[in-house]
């Protein structure tokens, strides 16, 4: 059967106003990178996050934000980093590259994100930093986790790639930690033409080196130049923190993307709210089916970037469900976030073992429904009816 509802690679459609902003930047922006649109996006984002101006930095994607955050941690041999195994690979490998040892934390069975308890269970005297991932768009218990990290003197990093706009205790995801990272990739609720990212750095001393780390180590000359063209147009030096040299990168995001990002901030709450209303509609309409266990959150704590459920009747029924949805109904559900310790990449690095039963259980029976913002009501209702029918027929087959 032909696919009726695909798991789209694109989260949102742009309004004519947003397209006009892009076209205007295409026509007029000079330079096309590192200009006023970048500064404007960073200013608007800091305002949206309710964090200090000058603490948010656009970068070319979430991964490059993680790369810089890993550099800023300045790990020493023997240092450990606590991070959930149930996440996307980009949450973890930038830290691996900096030589820190990963320690896997489990997620909560119901919320599918780490908790202060699951983090605490993974701490050792060598722990230097903690990465919390607000997976699926749900923000973890940040007040408790931040208190734990403060008490233990740990660097706290929030991977809010999927959770822009989600909030708890009146604060936005990505604003609780020492650093926060955001992704504006094609899949995310806010996307700047497919790639984009933001890095939040709380400490002004660390934030001061980010522009140079982001852009080739470029910096001002340390002296006045009587002839503006000499010795040359630009200077470079080694970004340093407390006397320690950090090697630069080029992770800049273009002006067109930045102009669009600033514009999209006006609509992100609406996008998130609309996704949540529809997620709750879908979840509530299936409340009679014990087989599908959703995470129902009726507040801005969840932006429903993804709509995921656990098949309580196990992996076998999960596979039969996805197969029937795809081949009898044309609805393409997927399975996401293999616990990282199961990938060859991490196994070969010595991270194959993890004690994460909740994350393992969830992953082995999980179903992720197509849930792009632009799904029509008709398609959502079709998917709902299809889900009911497939569950009923699987039920019948059981008996
Ligand atoms: C998307 C994502 C990233 C990486 O973002 P990119 O912009 O694709 O580099 C990191 N962590 C999580 C949890 C993500 O979902």
TrEMBL record:
Q: Which UniProt keywords apply?
A: Aminotransferase, Pyridoxal phosphate, Transferase
N6-(pyridoxal phosphate)lysine PTM positions read 188
Q: Which InterPro entries match?
A: DegT/StrS_aminotransferase, PyrdxlP-dep_Trfase, PyrdxlP-dep_Trfase_major, PyrdxlP-dep_Trfase_small
Say which domain of life the source belongs to.
Bacteria
Q: Which Pfam families match?
A: DegT_DnrJ_EryC1
Q: Which GO terms describe its molecular function?
A: pyridoxal phosphate binding; transaminase activity
Which terms does the UniProt entry file under GO BP? Answer: polysaccharide biosynthetic process
Q: Give the annotated active site.
A: 188
Q: Signal peptide location in the record?
A: none
Family stated for the protein in its record:
Belongs to the DegT/DnrJ/EryC1 family.
> This chain belongs to which protein, by name?
SpsC-like aminotransferase putatively involved in cell wall biogenesis
């Amino acid at each position: 059967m032909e696919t009726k509802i695909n798991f789209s690679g694109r989260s949102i459609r742009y309004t004519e106003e947003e397209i006009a902003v892009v076209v205007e930047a295409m026509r007029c922006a000079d330079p096309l990178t590192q200009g006023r649109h970048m500064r404007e996006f960073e200013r608007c984002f800091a305002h949206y996050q309710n964090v200090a101006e000058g603490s948010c930095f656009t970068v070319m994607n979430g991964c490059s934000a993680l790369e810089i955050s890993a550099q800023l941690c300045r790990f020493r041999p023997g240092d450990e980093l606590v991070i959930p195994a149930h996440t996307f690979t980009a949450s973890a490998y930038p830290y691996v590259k900096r030589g820190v040892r990963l320690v896997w934390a489990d997620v909560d069975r119901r919320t599918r994100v780490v908790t202060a308890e699951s983090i605490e269970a993974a701490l050792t005297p060598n722990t230097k930093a903690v990465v919390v991932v607000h997976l699926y768009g749900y923000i973890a218990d940040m007040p408790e986790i931040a208190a734990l990290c403060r008490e233990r003197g740990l660097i706290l990093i929030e991977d809010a790639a999927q959770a822009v706009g989600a909030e708890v205790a009146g604060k936005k995801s990505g604003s609780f930690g020492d650093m926060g990272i955001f992704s504006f990739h094609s899949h995310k609720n806010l996307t700047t033409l497919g790639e984009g990212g933001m890095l939040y750095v709380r400490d002004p001393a660390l934030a001061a080196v980010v522009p140079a780390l982001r852009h080739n180590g470029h910096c001002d000359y340390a002296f006045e130049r009587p002839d503006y063209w000499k010795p040359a147009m630009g200077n470079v030096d080694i970004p340093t923190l407390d006397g320690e040299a950090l090697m630069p990168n080029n992770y800049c995001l273009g002006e067109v993307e930045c102009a669009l990002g600033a514009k999209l901030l006006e609509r992100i709450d609406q996008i998130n709210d609309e996704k949540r209303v529809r997620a709750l509609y879908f979840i509530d309409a299936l409340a009679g089916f014990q087989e599908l266990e959703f995470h129902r959150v009726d507040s801005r704590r969840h932006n429903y970037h993804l709509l995921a459920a656990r098949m309580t009747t196990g992996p076998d029924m999960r596979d039969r469900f996805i197969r029937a949805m795809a081949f009898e109904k044309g609805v393409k559900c997927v399975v996401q976030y293999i616990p990282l310790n199961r990938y060859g990449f991490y196994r070969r690095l010595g991270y194959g073992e993890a004690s994460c039963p909740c994350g393992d259980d969830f992953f082995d029976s999980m179903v992720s429904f197509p849930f792009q913002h632009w799904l029509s009501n008709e398609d959502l209702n079709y998917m709902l009816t299809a889900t009911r029918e497939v569950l009923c027929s699987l039920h019948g087959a059981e008996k």
